[in-house]
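Hi, here's the filled form for the chain we discussed.

Project: internal
Contact: R.S.
Residues: 297
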Amino acid sequence: MQGRNWILVGIAVILGLAAVLVANAWFSGVEQRQAQVAEQQQMARIVVANQPIAFGNALSVQNVKLVNWPQTSVPVGAFNSIDEALKGGSVALRPIVVGEPVLASKLSGRATLSANLPVGFVAYAIPISEVAGVAGFVRPGDIVDVLLTRQIPGDNAGAQDKMNDVVLTAIPVLAIDTVADDTQTEAKPGKTATLQVDRLGAQKLALSSQLGSLSLALRNAADQTLATNQTVLPPQLSGRNIAIRKPGNAAPPMAPLSFVGLGAAPVGPVAAPRPMGPTMTVVRGSQSSEYEVPRGH
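And the returned structure, exactly as it came back:
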């Protein structure tokens, strides 16, 4: 009986080895056939992702594969072998989708935000809030305008005398807080936004953050038009400029009025009575009118 068991074990081992050899031969044959097809059809063999690769993930034999690719449209920086793509412990600098070629420009020895910056640009972080960050809908990869709200300069400016300027326009967002993956599109409020700007833009952001509060305006990513840097003041928030003067302030001089009738002599300027209480000045175009505000209202 014991001898029979050893015979069965031996047969099982032989069958297992045979299965492995057959599988290796089959896979080798598939690879050879694919290479022959690529050569016959003037195709190249390049490395692509066979599963999504997120920012910072390392390449491995499990998430990449070789496929046939038209020889005339091979992207610059493509790899012709998996070993070449995995050399040096490559990690993804930006997300790679299934079937997308793995390019040298998308890989690095370590995933750092600086590797994504074009030459001549820097990353600069500004503080934001849930409101200033468009309720969390500003995410990495979006395009924004940066607005500055600050006090109007001058000795007579009050606490409510504010002004707003467009500091920078059409600026890419690199990260919100510590999230730099542009595939994470779910709205999530953050406390900091890292923007891709040139050095002058970084200087403007550094100074603006000391002068007032910064906020982001989300724009269409396909819209490349630059916003005009127009200053908005409180009077522009209404169709009419309305101001209440303090009691005792002199009213502005009124333009002289004249009436000319048939055979009548011109009438000279008529002075308006000076109001005793607070007044309200209403400006319509280039004309202004002053009205007395009753004290009981």
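Let me know if anything looks off before we file it.
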